[in-house]
Amino acid sequence: MTGRILVVDDMEPNIRVLSAKLEAEYYEVLTANSGATAIMMAREQRPDLILLDVMMPQMDGFETCRRLKADPITQHIPVVMVTALDQQTDRVDGLQAGADDFLSKPIDDIALFARVRSLLRLNSVMDELRSHLNNGQGTDATNKLMALSKQTGGKVLVVEESERFGNRIAEKLGKSFSCQITTDPKVASTIAATGFDLILINLATDLFDGLRLCARLRADEATRQLPILCMVDAQAKDRSVRALDLGANDILERPVDRHELRARCQTLLQRRVYAAQLRENIDLSLEMAFSDQLTGLFNRRHLDIKLEELQVRFNDNKEPSVVLIADIDHFKQVNDTWGHVAGDMVLQQLADIMCESFRAIDIICRYGGEEFVVLMPDASLDSAKSAAERFRQVIAATSFDIGQAKEPIRISVSGGLAALQAEQSAKQILSRADAALYHAKKNGRNQMIAAISSKKDTKLTG
Ligand SMILES: [Mg+2]
Which of 160, 253, 370, 407 is catalytic? Predict the structure, then answer.
């Protein structure tokens, strides 16, 4: 995976070494020699990842990170702190400033690339989610989500080599996390999908293969999104690298420091909540983009897409499909006599009847005011006409509720049908159905008429 990485360090030689390593792996590298420059560049260039030196004059790495994470424009960019000090207090300070990860100088190449790959992968997923959302709603929604996701605590599954070790981890996590402990990776992979927010796996044991468990969790659809935090021995770099490549989200070195443990768990949980909320919002905005708000039927945009698809299928393998345009007769009178609220109630009830009248595979859309379109895939003109006729009869026999203290009213519908034809555009098919509808109206309404077409002219049948 390629990406743009911003390298921040006050020492020119450090920048050169790190840039050379990253460029050799085909990453695009941007550089900054101070915290202030880094913030400016992050805002303007939107890198995919920032490697940030901790020890810098004026603004140090912690403060730079805090500012990047407080700015809505840059807060999503993963930050890896590069520290000369291998002290746990530094790590905790960094995590509290919002850093996503750490590397110690001198930088180990394998560890560097494993971290970079893992964070870029995460970032690209989050980016995709955000861009879907931003297409509809702007950055306000994402900021709101970011704030919402700052919840604390969660349900953690701890996979340790003994109950005693597990309990020690649970004790370090503190009261805001509820922990379940298991010493069996098979049990872990079975129960992982049952409501846990996070799984903590000890990789530094010979009693079970934690890496295999990581792989299994990632391969299973039900646990693919579950955050994995692995505990490793500081000297077992290759295991950390394998774990990150297998899809573990974060690594924690043993002996486990309680502050670092809590901070890393917290970060993973917030990301999980954030991603889940993004996904939910996308589903909602997609639904809104393709449905009619009053009736809940599909809207015209969806109709255009589906009709195009049916036409392509017809051209490919002559799969017959039919389009029906139905229109409520004299609907203006309903609105004029009873008001728009009553009119809306009629439209909603009619939409419900449509959903019951046609097949589940039929695509029912509100086309305009009182005009509806039904796409009937894999249907002959005869069977489509029978369905339309049954629908017309149900409507004619139904009393429509228009609110309390008012007598229910009766309405009727007229419709025009047209079968898909070779070398006709979606627009041409709709206009053939529309012409049939026009004849139904002219013929006295409350009827369905099908257009039987040759290539040149359109004949009609009542
Ligand atoms: Mg420095």
Answer: 370
